[in-house]
Amino acid sequence: MEVKQANATKLKADFFHGGPGKNSPTTGYTSDESSPLIGGNVAVVSPSEESTSGKTSTFGAVFIVVNACIGAGLLNFPSAYQAAGGVAVGTIMQVLFLFLIFSSLLVLAVCSDVRNSNSYQDMMQSMCGTAGNIACAVCVIIYCFGTCVTFFIIMGDQLDSILALATHNDQTKYWYTDRKFTITVLAVCIVLPLCLPKNISILKWPSSVGVIGTIYVAVVIIINYYLLPTNAATHIVTRPTSWTDVFAAVPTICFGFQCHISAVPVYASLKQRTVGQFAWVITGALLIATVTYVLTGIYGSLTFGDRVCSDVLLSYDSGNVTVTVARVMILGNMLTSYPILHFCGRLAIETIYVTARKLPPAAAELTQTRRRIVETLSWFVLSLILALFVPTIGSVISVIGGLAAVFILVFPGLCLIQLALNSASADSSKSKRRFQIVLGVVFAALGTFMFGESVTAALMVDFGVISGGTVDC
């Protein structure tokens, strides 16, 4: 498969205008794409040989990666810190994970250079063949769907508090203030119309400033720690009650730092597409995200202790003006983020459909409109129904956070192993290949463990086998 290197303008057009290239998942694959590379030799090419220069600066790339990182997961960090055994344990776990996250992002850059891939799925196709691409598409669908459910839950959380302020905390239960009603109305009137179009170009500016809203939330949490009176009854967890408690923060950390799906197109769009330049990009982005998450986790934990809600904003009084502004900003961010995640999931569905049916581009385009409407309505209705009956974002993040570990570690690990196995004829030393294989195995094993542990723990909590360690608000 000859994947053309796209510049930043092309990438933005493909994503926001629904204009995939000729080899994209929505229009079918070339004949080369049907031949897996597993077991064969991979010709490693230099980015300068076959790619065109991108237009994204280092600073711009840092902002894009930060925007991909910081989001809904921010609200769950204080709760995750307390469940894991306190701010010290939570912070240490986060710092340790940073090394894995940083390394796996570099692995993605190296592997995407093999065939100048410009998307995560293109990279999986080039390294692991069609089977790897389909596996990646399935995970993208599940991850994006779970994230969309989380967005609806967060919308409901913020609406509850905003309406409580508007009604002056009137305890009377009105039908128009019922959570299920407000989420449904907001979803049908605003979210659904944004999901139906073929392109989502209208969202490129609102979504690009979403990171400002989440950083504002972190600032509000810090400021309110000093402004609010100290509650003597607050119990702050300082150590885990069991060694297994430390893993409670894993899903939130993985969910919060999962920027890997966006990392490959960002790398492809750099003015200087080199691994060294990309290292500077992810260093800056991860530093900003880490500081934001750590401060939110620490100050949220110190303010509310073990009584902090899984959505930290719910722990504050509905009359707090600064927090109300934060709720409005988060609500707006979720309204524009849902269609983007849905768009990514819809493209992944198209990948599986077109591949399974072996449709040529012309045939796939004929029924594209009907498929888009059916896929969108099905996705929307199912995610809305789940959000209406799932009580907290912690319940969803505990599952999709584990799945994020697959994108962060498992897939990069498999690609690194494949790179080492297929570079025997290239200019690569035996010791280097052995190191790549060992590192790839470690990545894949750790990612699989994190995924299994997170999902198992979530199921045990759901069935009442163990306590979830979080507060339902």
Automatic annotation (TrEMBL):
<feature type="region of interest" description="Disordered">
    <location>
        <begin position="14"/>
        <end position="35"/>
    </location>
</feature>
<feature type="transmembrane region" description="Helical">
    <location>
        <begin position="321"/>
        <end position="341"/>
    </location>
</feature>
<feature type="transmembrane region" description="Helical">
    <location>
        <begin position="248"/>
        <end position="268"/>
    </location>
</feature>
<feature type="transmembrane region" description="Helical">
    <location>
        <begin position="58"/>
        <end position="77"/>
    </location>
</feature>
<feature type="transmembrane region" description="Helical">
    <location>
        <begin position="403"/>
        <end position="425"/>
    </location>
</feature>
<keyword id="KW-0812">Transmembrane</keyword>
<feature type="domain" description="Amino acid transporter transmembrane">
    <location>
        <begin position="55"/>
        <end position="449"/>
    </location>
</feature>
<keyword id="KW-0472">Membrane</keyword>
<feature type="transmembrane region" description="Helical">
    <location>
        <begin position="437"/>
        <end position="461"/>
    </location>
</feature>
<dbReference type="GO" id="GO:0015179">
    <property type="term" value="F:L-amino acid transmembrane transporter activity"/>
</dbReference>
<feature type="transmembrane region" description="Helical">
    <location>
        <begin position="280"/>
        <end position="301"/>
    </location>
</feature>
<protein>
    <recommendedName>
        <fullName>Amino acid transporter transmembrane domain-containing protein</fullName>
    </recommendedName>
</protein>
<dbReference type="InterPro" id="IPR013057">
    <property type="entry name" value="AA_transpt_TM"/>
</dbReference>
<feature type="transmembrane region" description="Helical">
    <location>
        <begin position="377"/>
        <end position="397"/>
    </location>
</feature>
<feature type="transmembrane region" description="Helical">
    <location>
        <begin position="131"/>
        <end position="155"/>
    </location>
</feature>
<dbReference type="GO" id="GO:0016020">
    <property type="term" value="C:membrane"/>
</dbReference>
<feature type="transmembrane region" description="Helical">
    <location>
        <begin position="181"/>
        <end position="197"/>
    </location>
</feature>
<feature type="transmembrane region" description="Helical">
    <location>
        <begin position="83"/>
        <end position="110"/>
    </location>
</feature>
<dbReference type="Pfam" id="PF01490">
    <property type="entry name" value="Aa_trans"/>
</dbReference>
<feature type="transmembrane region" description="Helical">
    <location>
        <begin position="209"/>
        <end position="228"/>
    </location>
</feature>
<feature type="compositionally biased region" description="Polar residues">
    <location>
        <begin position="23"/>
        <end position="34"/>
    </location>
</feature>
<keyword id="KW-1133">Transmembrane helix</keyword>
